[in-house]
Design brief:
five-stranded mixed sheet, 9 helices, 55% helix, 16% strand
Length: 455
């Protein structure tokens, strides 16, 4: 059976409150009744004390005055049991006097009131022996039971009403607090349920500073991390699938392009350099395509080969020869700035082929971003333990929407682009103990490619 947490909090708290308020209310009512009875008896005692100490004749007029002061009926009798004065009819007084013989008498003060019935009415009777008056030996004080009950009721009702209202208000307040707490918990439960179904669109409102607020903050953070993880898993699955497909196609294409390039080179040697310029252009284009496919193959697991060291300056020279026709066609400028000649022997990468493919992608991206009439610069420098290659282009740069994920697979701002060139370059940099970063400097887009030196 489901037992909501708000009920687990509300019911014990409400029961505890009700018990506490009930004990306080009953105690207050009992104390008030006891005090009212004591006050009433004290007033009657004062009247009785006045009558018992008087030496003047106790007549009906005197008792009527005392009745007005105390609110009680009075019956006076002598030693022989004859009524000498009364505030009640004589017949009723005689009946009460006979019935009250069993009522204990004190020495000038009222004892415990005893109920005595006379006709249709019940009286609470207290008896007092009078010692000083010659005519008066016993004085009966009568209070109607209904009047006494009314006094008690008037005293009991206010504390009970106040206690009841207090319990009601505290119950309503407890219910409101528990309902509010339960609403927040229900909202969290529904939100966690949506997270289980991969719905990450809405976040929990975070207000206040309590445990539930911190819990809501943790749930929102978990939702964001789950969303990122889910996206990453989807990208990974997509990447794995495309990589498998691309790997198979790339193997076939590379074999075909290698065969075509070798055929063109063989034909060039046989024709004794006739129309060699066109054939050289074809060879360069085939070599460029072969390098790009080689980079694509490096993304697949089964394309890992034993790395061969290679110099970066030589890789850049090869890239320049491959891309020069494209720069000339787009009327863009391309320049390479290398360290001094005596330091170039230190520009050695652990895997020359992968490094060449990564730099080729960076430079070709710069060419596509800045043309026509733009400029691409490559600046190579030696750091303490790193080789740094800055590829700068005069293009507009990456859009704000893509700047944070420019190295993610299949993210591209070009309508015909695949979005693997920068991913490949970043992967090569990381495999060589370096990194690839993007930033904008005055009028230039810069990709900073770093890899660890091996010499």
């Amino acid at each position: 059976m489901r037992w909501p947490i708000r009920n687990q909090i509300l019911l014990p708290f409400a029961i505890l409150q009700a018990v506490a308020v009930g004990v306080i209310t009953i105690s207050a009512a009992w104390i008030a009744v006891d005090r009212a009875e004591r006050d009433a008896i004290a007033r009657l005692d004062q009247v009785v004390a006045t009558l018992s100490s008087s030496r003047f004749p106790i007549q009906g007029a005197v008792l009527e005055q005392m009745k007005g002061l105390s609110g009680a009926e009075l019956i006076a009798s002598n030693d022989s049991g004859t009524i000498t004065a009364t505030t009640l009819p004589l017949e009723a007084s005689q009946t009460i006097l006979v019935s009250a013989q069993s009522v204990s008498a004190g020495a000038g003060r009222l004892g415990d009131f005893q109920p005595v019935s006379a006709g249709d009415e019940t009286w609470l009777v207290g008896a007092v022996s009078v010692l000083r008056s010659p005519e008066l030996k016993q004085l009966l004080v009568l209070v109607p039971e209904q009047q006494w009950q009314a006094v008690r009721r008037d005293v009991i009702v206010p504390p009970l009403v106040i206690g009841g209202i207090t319990v009601l208000v505290m119950g309503l307040l407890s219910w409101f607090i528990a309902a509010r707490l339960g609403t927040r918990l229900d909202r969290m439960q529904r939100h966690v349920g949506r997270l289980a179904t991969m719905q990450f669109d809405n976040l929990l409102p975070v207000t206040g500073d309590d445990e539930l607020t911190r819990l809501a903050t943790s749930i929102n953070r978990m939702a964001q991390e789950l969303q990122q993880a889910t996206q990453q898993i989807r990208v990974t699955e997509r990447t794995t699938l495309i990589t498998q497909v691309a790997g198979g196609l790339a193997h076939q294409l590379r074999n075909s392009i290698t065969g075509a390039r070798m055929a063109v080179q063989l034909h060039l040697r046989r024709t004794n350099n006739v129309d060699s310029e066109s054939l050289l252009v074809a060879i360069r284009q085939l070599s460029l395509t072969e390098n790009q496919i080689r980079g694509l193959l490096s993304l697949t697991k089964d394309a890992q080969q034993t790395p061969v060291e290679g110099r970066i300056d030589e890789a850049l020279a090869t890239i320049q020869s491959l891309l020069t026709p494209q720069f000339e066609h787009s009327e863009s400028r391309f320049s390479i700035e290398l360290p001094p000649q005596e330091q170039r022997t230190l520009l050695v990468a652990a895997d020359g082929e992968q490094t060449q493919v990564a730099l080729l992608n960076l430079i070709q991206n710069g060419l596509e971003a800045c043309r026509p009439g733009g400029q691409v610069m490559v600046v190579v420098s030696l750091l303490s333990v790193l080789i740094q290659v800055d590829v700068l282009d005069s293009g507009p740069g990456v859009s704000d929407a893509l700047s944070g994920k420019v190295f993610d697979p299949f993210v591209t701002g070009k309508p015909e682009g695949v979005g693997l060139g920068l991913t490949l370059a970043a992967q090569v940099a990381e495999l060589h103990g370096g990194s690839l970063k993007y930033d904008r400097i005055t009028g230039w887009t810069r990709f900073r490619f770093q890899l660890r030196r091996i010499r």
